[in-house]
Write a structure and sequence with these properties.
The complex is a heterodimer of chains A (132) and B (275).
Chain A: H1 4-18, H2 20-24, H3 40-44, H4 54-74, E1 79-81, E2 87-89, H5 92-99, H6 107-114
Antiparallel strand pairs in A: 1-2
Chain B: H1 5-20, H2 22-29, H3 43-51, E1 62-67, H4 68-73, H5 76-88, E2 104-107, H6 109-112, H7 123-126, E3 130-133, H8 141-145, E4 151-153, E5 159-161, H9 171-175, E6 182-183, H10 188-195, E7 211-212, H11 218-221, H12 228-232, E8 237-241, H13 248-255, E9 258-259, E10 271-274
The chains are: A mainly alpha (132), B alpha+beta (275).
Chain lengths: 132, 275
């Protein structure tokens, strides 16, 4: 190989530069977000539970929200019967956000962590700050 | 490849013939495939209704009768109705006709009923305020042209909008003969913020790039409440089920002379004007 020294040094520099992001951030992993549940409405609840189980809501709320949106809007059926047999009025602003009135500390916490930007908030807004 | 004039003309003529007969061939293989789809979510129900006279086959068909005489006696009510509706649904006021977004608005007789405008009309009629809104047609042309089914006819006759699906193509605006649809050229929140008015926390706003219109307060109907305009002016806006012969709207339509906008277009509007 011609100019082996230069090539190898170049490769080492390239490798270091390329993996810079990995070793620079080593050991500095961002802590998993802890969405807050300390809104006034939730504090008042005797049994602190969402419309479905915590694990189900954590993993499947996006599909559930999409499903409920279509059911309410397109089929005009605004009652959701959950697994516990309770009937829930389907409305993001009037039902979900009534308890989770802390969008910044609840919704945004995880969404920012995983880098998703759901378009819900282009139209729906937090009723507590009804001035935009 | 070389081709003489004679051969070229033969091929061109044959191709033209095939081209002319193309649509018939299509029709033979897949009947009806070329026709634009008419009914959407409620295809069967809607078609049946038209075949067996008005609203037959439907259980609920919401309609509104607007008492123009009473509105004329109390013209301040029109403003009140408009403000209530626009508060209820967070409809922005841009203050200029280019960006205007409206769900319910006022106009005069000439522009409300351009087809039945007469020369030398009674002055009283000419100056009367008419409240205009989405007619929630039985055969809504906007639903027919919507490429994403963002606007659709509910089984109860309400022509609803699903803003999640609207791509802002504005076909529905071109199709609507009543000018009931408005396009959000700008983010409506800019105007709402500028107005500094209180928003209705129970209803969302819209976003830039979607078409919006009166939804006959489906969110209130589904909760068992009356539309906001009817609630604020129950003697001017008479609401009810057009199928039910004993409903308030049918009662008043039996007794009074009524008219609907541009019925000759066949869209079958369900907003009646009592004169």
């Amino acid at each position: 190989m011609y100019d082996a020294g230069k090539v190898i040094i170049g490769l080492v520099i390239f490798f270091c530069f390329f993996t810079f992001a990995f070793w620079y951030n080593m050991g500095k992993a961002a802590p998993a977000p802890k969405p807050k549940l300390d809104t006034p409405v939730i504090k008042k609840m005797v049994k602190k539970q969402c419309i479905e189980g915590t694990h189900f809501m954590r993993t499947t709320h996006m599909q559930l929200l999409n499903h409920l949106r279509d059911q309410a809007l397109r089929q005009g059926n605004r009652w959701y019967t959950n697994k516990r047999g309770e009937k829930v009025w389907i409305s993001l602003q009037n039902t979900c956000l009534k308890c989770h009135s802390n969008k910044k500390e609840f919704c945004d916490k995880c969404h920012n962590y995983v880098g998703v930007d759901p378009y819900c908030w282009d139209c729906h807004f937090d009723p507590n700050r009804s001035k935009l | 490849m070389s081709m003489d004039r004679r051969k070229f003309l033969k091929i061109a003529g044959l191709s033209a013939l095939v081209g002319l007969g193309g649509s018939e061939a299509f029709e033979l293989l897949q009947p009806g495939a070329l026709e634009a789809s008419e009914g959407h979510e409620v295809e069967g129900g809607a078609k049946k209704a038209h075949e067996e006279g008005p609203y037959a086959g439907d259980k609920i068909r919401w309609g509104i009768a607007i008492d123009i005489i009473k509105l004329g006696e109390n013209p301040a009510m029109a403003k009140k109705i408009i403000t209530t509706c626009h508060y209820e649904h967070n409809v922005p006021n841009w203050g200029n006709p280019k960006d205007e977004v409206k769900w319910i608005w006022e106009d005069d007789y000439e522009h409300s009923f351009p087809d039945s405008y007469n020369d030398l009309m009674a002055e009283k009629v000419e100056g009367m305020p008419f409240l205009l809104l989405c007619n929630h047609c039985d055969r809504p042309p906007c639903v027919r042209v919507c490429p994403t089914k963002a606007t659709f006819r509910r089984p109860d006759g309400v022509v609803a909008m699903d803003y999640h699906r609207c791509i802002g193509c504005r076909f529905c605006m071109a199709a609507c003969p009543y000018g009931s649809r408005s396009f959000n050229w700008l983010d409506p929140r800019i105007a709402l913020k500028r107005e500094g008015r209180k928003l209705n926390p129970r209803f969302p706003t819209r976003m830039r790039g979607v078409v919006e219109k009166c939804n006959l307060c489906v969110e209130r109907l589904d909760a068992g409440k009356l539309p906001a305009c009817v609630e604020v002016a129950p003697d001017i806006m008479i609401f009810g089920n057009l199928v039910d012969a004993d409903s308030p709207v049918r009662k008043v339509l039996r007794e009074r002379v009524s008219m609907r906008r541009k019925i000759q277009l066949g869209s079958k509007p369900s907003v009646f004007y009592l004169v």
